[in-house]
Amino acid sequence: MADNKNGPVSADRLTAFVAAALGSQGVPDADATKVAEIMVDADIFGYSTHGVFRLRQYMARLKDSGCNPSAKIGIAHETVATALIDGDNGLGHLAMSAARDLAIGKARTAGIGWVGVRRGNHAGPLALYVRPQAETGMIGMAAAVGSANHVPPFGGSDLLLGTNPIAIAAPSADADPFVMDMATTVAAMGKIKTLIQRGEPMPEGWMVGRDGAPLTDPNKKSEGFLLPIGGAKGFGLSVAIGLMAGVLNGAAFGSDVVDFTNDTTSQTNTGQFVMALDPLAFGITDFDHRAKAAFDEMRASEPLPGHDPVRLPGEGKTAAAKARRTSGLTLNPALRRDLEALAADYGLDASFT
Length: 353
Prior knowledge:
- It is built from ten helices and ten strands.
- By secondary structure, the protein is an alpha+beta fold.
- Among the domains are: 71-185 and 230-316, Ribosomal Protein S8, Chain: A, domain 1, CATH 3.30.1370; 197-227, no CATH class.
- The chain has a seven-stranded mixed β-sheet.
- The longest helix has 19 residues, at 92-110.
- The model has no long low-confidence stretch (mean pLDDT 95).
- It holds the Pfam family Ldh_2.
């Protein structure tokens, strides 16, 4: 990387670098560019643990044949309102963006579109597969079986569940749509991997060791468990997502899940789904204004002592994303060093600052 070691990085140049990296492993230009744009968008919208940070993992799976660089995305089953996409073991972003677009198209004609994915891979933050629904006046939902098992069933000790995230978006007459994107664990594994990269400890309450004691060294994550949100409730939600994103799609769930970081040669058969729901199907023509009215009431709630004013999920992201597109992205120094090392490892030009 050239001159400005600590300054912001142009989103366009970062996208070009990521696309070139993927292309070096045989990903066709159009697919590489599409995936790169989604990865950089993750950073632009503030989901940095699921954006360019993941490039090294994707490159390793492409290099070791765990991921198909020239996947042909296809529809395995289809009805008026539903479909099942076969991701052909390609980069997950391709299958999920196809699922999102197909779900939106079906919702325009049937009122709802539900599209599952099988034989997929890690696809970045789910928020990017529900925000477009909200921006077109629809409600969006997406969920996925996590790309590795880090959680035991509640009360058990065998690792049979992942972070199994879920995202929901809805339109609002505000500057920002409602966009909630969360893991069913207290913390996503991506956050822990980011702490490892930065050399920082974990807060108590994210993981426990097999002795039940708090685990705060992220480098020892393999020695413990991620904790589900809300105890048994988070466990139940994670299982429900596994049924809808995994079992329903003929995708991996439970002990079938492949750790996509540690196993770079096996197909993961990752399962996901994307849903789009049109409020017009319910005769509601002003959903966005009704939502804004409800949000305004919540923001008007007097904050508890010591708390900031009430904010809604997704609030402020539109302006922040616009600023990053204009002024560039500030990369964490640890990520910048990793990209430099990655460029050296694969013989890439990393002079994109």
